Amino acid sequence: MTRIAYVIVPLLMIAFAISNAQVALEQKMPTRLIDSLDNAVGREVIVEGLAWGYMNKGLSNWVMTGQGQRLYISGIDFEQLNGRLVRLTGTLRKKRMEAAPPGAQGYGRAFEYFTIEVTSAEVIDQVSVGHLQVKELAAKSSQP
Fold this sequence. Notes:
five-stranded mixed β-barrel; 6 strands
């Protein structure tokens, strides 16, 4: 029994530390993400990351960037992309989800989130940029 405890206790400590780190990161991220993404709303953007969320409950499918940004996506057939690295191009939008009425199913409080109306999508082998880019600025920075 004690041998099992030597294995389980450290694993529980690691899981607890990871959980605390995720909570701390989530508490810090929203302001920083909103500050930077607000400037790109309504503009054409490029994002690379992991496509995820097919058939999950919630707002919609999403792409997770290398910086941990979850950007919801619309406008494409997502089934073939789920679980793969992708490069998406589209228009960034900011939306608001209102709180569900008391006693109803849904989100307990109102919040804002970002979504990309995708115009093109491709599966890639490797992420070259781990954050969202405004398309015209990305084109300028790649010119000599």
